[in-house]
Design goal:
about 425 residues; 4-stranded parallel beta sheet; alpha/beta; FAD/NAD(P)-binding domain; 10 helices; about 25% strand
Length: about 425
């Protein structure tokens, strides 16, 4: 009797989960491996970091999502390496998984451009652990400012620097300004949160560089209206526990957040194939690995040009890749040649703050309140689970009318920085 083909999926993010779900009725058995037990809706991760949402609002257990799909086994584990020649995945606990088809969708991590020592002072935002650490740092900073007698040191606690002017940096900066100006107003007696200084530091000439220049400029204007200081054109030269060095200027900031760069998962190096400058696998048109048609890459780990442009590392692209990989595996099982991946660009959108966002839908560009409502509707719609959507809508409705944020709880050790 012929064995059922085994598909190993590494990563329970958008790429991995969409592949597994698209193979629900395929004649295969699937093992989905992830270091966490949940699928995370990353586009709203900044809301957890800034106390707008709690972790369960934007995450759901993988086992629960896939509970009715009988051909999937979910495995909690850390991948130690890939052995393409043996068609084998090694786990950190010593176990191995043999595969007929393999999908690597392990995502990306933070890149500090050769300054890994900055990571201790400027955490990035990729996981729920990252979000909770950032939330702890932000809320603790206001508490430390309240307890500080020295005015200069108090100002340093009330200074927040966000490095990187992409969507994540813009979202963090705008929300931080709103927290300081509105949410915390009236709750402190010695340190006035409204005096907090929020800086957005971008080495390039403008924020949101992936957007058309007019929308980028509108985003900058909206940030400034919220009270954010936007600095462009000067890269950060150094970061330590006391602040940042911006060119010749030293900025005393006890809270620095990193949103400037990403690097691909180190698993890519095990494949022995060409990688791009960010460490991503330069895949074939069908998303397979050169020389290894049984291995596919999806999401942030894949480097692919489509219509003369790189496929962006965003959630819609990862979902499309995941579905395509499932189709490619079906084709291989039937002895057919998989089709090339076709990326559908649905547009670009980013939120800046309450009633402030920018949207670019294939030349149809708008900003402000209408863009904010569009952004909100799109993100709520794509959340997994009816309960998640309802809870998020209720929390956002409350925040909209009251400026309050529902998850302002400090978790973790309050250690000196």
């Amino acid at each position: 009797m012929r064995a059922v083909p085994h598909v190993v999926v590494v990563g329970g993010g958008f790429g991995g989960l969409w592949t597994a779900r698209a193979l629900r009725d395929a004649p295969v058995r699937i093992t989905l491996v992830d270091r966490g037990n949940h699928h995370l809706f990353q586009p709203l991760l900044y809301q957890v970091a800034t106390a707008g949402l709690s972790a369960p609002n934007i995450a759901a257990p993988l086992r629960h999502i896939l509970r009715k799909q009988k051909n999937v086994t979910v495995l909690l584990g850390e991948i130690d390496g890939i052995v393409p020649g043996d068609r084998q995945v090694r786990l950190a606990d010593g176990r191995t998984l043999d595969y007929d088809h393999l999908l690597l969708a392990s995502g990306a991590t933070h890149a500090y451009f050769g300054h890994d020592d900055w990571a201790a002072h400027a955490p990035g935002l990729k996981t729920l652990d990252d979000a909770l650490e950032i939330r702890r740092r932000i809320l603790t900073a206001f508490e430390r400012a309240e307890a500080e007698d020295d005015a200069t040191k108090r100002d340093a606690w009330l200074t927040f620097a966000i490095v990187g002017g992409g969507p994540t940096g813009v979202e963090l900066a705008g929300t931080l300004a709103e927290i300081a100006r509105h949410t915390l107003h009236g709750e402190f007696r010695r340190a006035d949160p409204r005096k907090a200084r929020v800086l957005l530091l971008e080495a390039g000439p403008r924020v949101l560089s992936s957007f058309p220049e007019p929308l980028s400029e509108k985003a900058r204007t909206q940030l400034q209206k919220l009270g954010v200081e936007v600095r462009t054109g000067v890269p950060v030269a150094a970061i330590d526990g006391e602040g940042v060095q911006l060119g010749e200027e030293r900025i005393a900031a006890r809270t620095v957040l990193w949103a400037a760069g990403v690097a691909a998962s180190p698993l890519a190096r095990d494949l022995g194939v060409p990688l791009d400058r960010a460490g991503r696998v330069i895949v074939q048109p069908d998303l397979s690995v050169p020389g290894h048609p049984e291995i596919f890459i999806a999401g942030d780990l894949a480097s692919l040009q489509y219509a003369g442009k790189p496929v962006p590392g965003v959630a819609p692209a990862a979902k499309q890749m995941g579905r395509h990989v499932a189709q490619a595996i079906r084709a291989r099982l039937q002895g057919r040649t998989p089709a090339s991946f076709r990326y559908r660009d649905f547009g670009n959108l980013a939120t800046i703050g309450r009633m402030a966002a920018v949207v670019d839908l294939h030349g149809f560009k708008f900003s402000g309140l209408l863009a904010w409502w569009f952004w909100l509707a799109a993100h709520v719609f794509f959340l997994i689970g009816f309960r998640n959507r309802m809870v998020v809508m209720i929390d956002w409705a409350q925040a909209y009318w009251s400026y309050q944020r529902s998850a302002r709880i400090i978790l973790g050790a309050d250690r000196e920085r």
